[in-house]
Amino acid sequence: MVALKTLTITKEISINASAKIVYNALTTSEEIIQYFPLKKVESNWIAGDEIKFIGEVDGRISLDIGIINKLIPNKLFEFSYWNQNHGTERKIENYLTVS
């Protein structure tokens, strides 16, 4: 068995808005599409539930399928996702985590 290597990328940005406004923008289906190149986001917005980010890249449908790992109101939104365009099999070890 091959050991999986974990890679981490850390980025930080400053947003001139309250934590509540940013959290709502990232965790409300109608809001998030205003800030990302998405057409639709489907989720019940409950930790452990599925989330789908549906967009379009170069005229082709782009679909990110994921799981919401953590939701702490006004503090944290963490999810793991897989994209059909990554060239990998849809297995949990190929999911990327964003928080």
Q: Quick gist of this model?
A:
This protein is mainly β and 99 residues long. Helix content is 13%, strand content 38%.
Notes on the structure:
This protein has one domain (19-98): START domain (Alpha-D-Glucose-1,6-Bisphosphate, Chain A, domain 4), CATH 3.30.530.20. It is mainly beta and 99 residues long. The chain is globular and about 40 Å long. The mean pLDDT is 90. It has a 5-stranded antiparallel beta sheet. It has 2 helices and 5 strands, in the order ααβββββ.
Topology summary:
Elements: H1 19-27, H2 29-32, E1 38-43, E2 50-57, E3 60-72, E4 76-83, E5 96-98
Antiparallel strand pairs: 1-2, 2-3, 3-4, 4-5
Structural class: mainly beta
Architecture, CATH level 2?
Answer: 2-Layer Sandwich
What would you call the shape?
globular
Q: Strand sequence of the main sheet, in spatial order?
A: 1-2-3-4-5
Low-confidence stretches: none
What is the number of strand segments?
A: 5
